[in-house]
Amino acid sequence: MALGIGRRTRSSVRVIVQATANSVAVLAALALFGTAGALSPAIAQVKAPAKAKLKPPVKAVPKADRTDRVADQLNAKWQQENGAFSGFTNTKADPAVVPASHATPAAANDWGDRLVSRAMNYLGTPYRPGGISPSTGFDCSGFVYYLYGAVFGQTIPRMPDGMAREGAPVARSDLKRGDIVFFGYHGTFTHVGIYAGNDQFVHATHRGSPVMVTALDADYYRQHYMTAVRLSPR
Questions:
Q1: HSE-CB for 169 with a 13 A CA cutoff
Q2: Active-site residue, from 102, 186, 191, 206
Q3: Is 186 a catalytic residue?
Q4: pTM for the model
Q5: Is 102 an active-site residue?
Q6: Is 140 one of the catalytic residues?
Q7: Phi then psi for 193, rounded to 5 degrees?
Q8: From CA 156, how far away is CA 163, in angstroms rounded?
Q9: Which among 18, 33, 105, 208 is least buried, having the fewest CB atoms inside 10 angstroms?
């Protein structure tokens, strides 16, 4: 009888020990799972977002220049008063002159120097289609037109073809300061400037570029040089 009770007691102890061990294992597994679950959100939080999802910085829109609007309005007014401006057309414009007391006298031998010297005062002036004064900017023929009025008080044709008809043809090898040089293709003038000496000319270039001095042998101008005239002031 005592032997049977002892055996049952040892069997019960083994069951209790096994159950305790199983419980500890379960609790350990639950603790490990809970820790991993608790850490995973923190790990996710420190991950950097994918590059593809990063939004590029927004660039500020540049403010409009008030002087640009004024210049455009003045040019629009000139075009309205003198007809639509479309390339080099024979558009009649009012004389770009200054009072005679302010005009520079044209001496027999130095009028070209005076013309070039005055032109150099406007280096950096912006290009404006239809522009004929420093306050609005210049286009290429408007620059030449303005200079003759400002320096000599003289009205010359507004467009290159008219200037070419008014002047005396000059060979490139005989160019002197103040001569008008023309560029283009297929018999059509597309650009004009004032010869400044040393195989260079001063001109209102093109949209986005100001009045500057350029070599006649620069690629575009060497290829499109057409003729030159000497338009002596009266």
A1: 4
A2: 191
A3: no
A4: 0.57
A5: no
A6: yes
A7: -160, -175
A8: 7
A9: 208
